[in-house]
Amino acid sequence: MATSNYYEWQLFNGNQWVYINNDFIIETHYCQPGASGIRINLNTGAVYIDFDEMTADGPDDNLAIRRNTLLSQNQKQEVGWYYKDNHRWCEYGSQGWGGRTSSIGSDFIEQHFNSNPSGSVQFTAGNMTYSVDFNAMTQTNLSTHLTRKVRRRPKFNKIVAINNSFLNSSPTLASPSTNPSNSSSHFIWEFMGDEGIWTEYQKPACSLDSAEIERLYQLNPQCQVSFTARRFSYTLYFGGMYQVNDRLGTRRTVRRIASGSQQTNNALSQARWQFKDMDGKWKDYVRGGSRGKCSVSSQDIEAQYQQDPTAIMSFSAGRFNYELDFSAMTQTNLRTNTRRAVQRLQQ
After folding, report:
1. Which of 160, 184, 216 is the last residue before a domain boundary?
2. Helical residues (DSSP H) of 73-204, grouped into ranges
3. What is the pLDDT of residue 260?
4. How far apart are CA 108 and CA 95, in angstroms?
5. Upstream peptide bond of 59 is cis (omega within 30 degrees of 0)
6. Strands 242-245 and 320-325
7. pTM of the full predicted structure?
8. pLDDT, mean of each 10-residue run, the chain (347 residues)
9. Cβ–Cβ under 8 Å, residues 68 and 7
């Protein structure tokens, strides 16, 4: 088991995920920005863990590595953002080589990263302007085009309290069992897939299944856990009951239901959300539509609406980001400030 209550490192040995003993050694190295990886010795041989790619290489095929975070909804681990200077890794906001200090710090970059993990952020240092690309994890001087590596690493044992009302606004469908040891098989975990179809977490497509998610939920029903599905990594937030694609930022609703319960999708599938386009016609929200890929469908919007009819929901379409205001029934383009009417139809 993990030696801390807020993280655990696990290795997939080709058959199942297993705990890594003394994983605090891995965590200590991972929190160092200059560490590319670590080699650990197991009974089956030496395994190298690549921190940048989050991969494992060793004597067996199909090895994989993951780091689960077990923080409560009012906690977060401080995160540092670093760039590779001429001689060392420097945290943003500190003085780098040549005495220059960037105009932004780790907290500022982390806020932008959380709002759009596939985006970028610009800043100045001296008389130069730079851009940090979250996808490529690089920093580019916009004048000289010099590119440097960037790393995002947690700070070891630095846990701070936060106040996140959003996580408290989404109710769960079932409460934790008072007998965790016997409950993991009695609940099914599902995410809302394409076009409003609830899909269970299952192996081998996903690195976690319902039983493992339930075990982590019983340990801390307000924590967040990391997992992979095919080539993407995700974070599942128990407090808010949603998952986020760590690279694309796509958010999907999650639910926990008792095994054998007969819940349906009727409430979500019967609602239809539309926006009034520039030609004056009402158009459906369709994920991956032809006019620029939309990140949400009517079912996604309805799920958020059911949780909080007064909320503001963020989404993207093509190269633009939008906000959908349920109270005002409008959508706003965050770049152009263009506002369009929205309607909700009951079929």
Report:
1. 160
2. 106-115, 165-168
3. 60
4. 16
5. no
6. unpaired
7. 0.51
8. 66 86 90 93 90 90 86 81 89 72 84 84 86 93 94 88 46 40 66 74 85 85 81 84 84 81 50 89 77 76 82 86 92 93 86
9. yes
In which element (H, E) is residue 9 found? strand 7-12
The amino acid that residue 332 corresponds to is T
- 227 and 306 part of one domain: no
Cα Rg of the chain, angstroms: 22
Query: Structural domain of residue 52, as residue ranges?
Result: 1-65
Among 127, 160, 193, identify where a domain stops.
160
Q: Number of structural domains, the chain?
A: 4
DSSP sequence for 64-102 = EEEEEE---TTEEEEEEEEEE-SSSEEETTSB-GGG-BB
Between strands 128-133 and 138-141, the pairing is: antiparallel
Residues 31 and 11 both lie in one domain:
yes
SS3 at position 300: helix
Tell me, yes or no, whether 255 and 338 share the same domain.
no
Q: What is the pLDDT of residue 172?
A: 35
Could you tell me if 227 and 234 are in contact, meaning their C-beta atoms sit under 8 angstroms apart? Answer: yes
Neighbours of 142 (CB within 10 A): 12
- Residue 255 CA to residue 198 CA, distance in Å, equals 9
Helix (H) or strand (E) holding 140: strand 138-141
**pLDDT tens readout for residues 125-175:** 878 899 999 989 999 999 999 999 999 999 988 887 765 433 333 333 333
What one-character-per-residue DSSP string does 206-240 give? BS--HHHHHHHHHH-TT-EEEEEETTEEEEEETTT
Is the domain of 180 the same as that of 254?
Answer: yes
In a shared domain, residues 1 and 85:
no
